[in-house]
Each structure stands twice: as structure tokens, then as C-alpha cells.
Design goal:
By secondary structure, the chain is of the alpha/beta class. The chain is 19% helix and 33% strand.
Length: 144
């Protein structure tokens, strides 16, 4: 048995419109699916009885996807912000073509960054971390 590919990263959100604005409108990911599911199969897979989930799948130019999930049946508030050193799934990394321009655009939209873009010690990339509307750490990388 072999893993063939990374299919998607799932992010549970409290406000789909706010997260959609970030991932689609600001980062430029393309929506390729938008649906609601409350099937018995979904409830069994997630182990969330009574789950009704609004899902929007977005893809990058290379086809890799991010799946936004809003549990309509189980509303949630914002969690405590994760630190970059917290154990568990910690961040997603997105490769971009012009990090300085994107950093400026996102900063003007009120997106919070840990630091301005910096060149990595090996000089192979320019990198920064920001937070999505739910506090998820998003690493933005430009190969230089």
C-alpha cells in the first residue's frame, strides 16, 4: 500500500463567509465544490451525531485543495489561538509567486502576520506566517 497524494487539508470554521473571503478573495483559491451534507454516512465518519456540515472546497493552481467545513448543527466560537510550537496539526503552507505584494494586500485587509517576509537561512525561499480568520497559521512561501 502506498499513499498516492495529499488530497486536501480540512479547516473547521465558525463563519464560512469570512473564511471564504480570506481563501478565495484574498489568496485567490478557486471554489470547485460547495454543498451541505447531513447524511448518516457523514455522521458516522465524523463521529458527530446530528452533524450538518456546509463544505466548500477550494483549489490552488496545482489542484491541491483546502476544504472549509462549517458545522451548522454544532456552532462554534473561535478557539484560543495556537502557537507555532503547539503539538498537532500546526499550519498549512501555500506557495505564492509574489510574497511582498501578497503581504501588502493582506496587511491592508487587516490580516495579522507574525513578521514581515524574510529570506530563509539557505536563501532558497522568502517566508512569512499569518493567521486566517479562525486563527489557523498559514505559511506563505515564495521560492527565490
Amino acid at each position: 500500500m502506498t499513499i498516492l497524494a495529499i488530497r486536501h487539508t480540512g479547516i473547521v470554521v465558525s463563519d464560512m463567509q469570512r473564511s471564504l473571503h480570506f481563501y478565495r478573495d484574498l489568496l485567490g483559491l478557486e471554489v470547485w465544490a460547495d454543498f451541505t451534507d447531513d447524511s448518516e454516512t457523514l455522521q458516522e465518519i465524523t463521529n458527530v451525531i446530528g452533524a450538518k456540515i456546509w463544505m466548500i472546497k477550494l483549489k490552488a493552481a496545482d489542484g491541491v485543495s483546502i476544504e472549509l467545513l462549517q458545522y451548522l448543527s454544532h456552532p462554534q466560537g473561535l478557539p484560543e489561538p495556537r502557537k507555532a510550537c503547539d503539538v498537532g496539526c500546526n499550519h498549512i503552507a501555500l506557495q505564492v509567486d509574489d510574497l511582498d505584494a501578497l503581504h501588502e494586500k493582506l496587511k491592508n485587509e487587516g490580516i495579522i502576520f507574525h513578521t514581515p517576509p524574510s529570506i530563509t537561512p539557505d536563501s532558497g525561499a522568502k517566508v512569512t506566517y499569518c493567521r486566517d480568520p479562525e486563527g489557523v497559521i498559514v505559511e506563505l512561501v515564495e521560492i527565490v
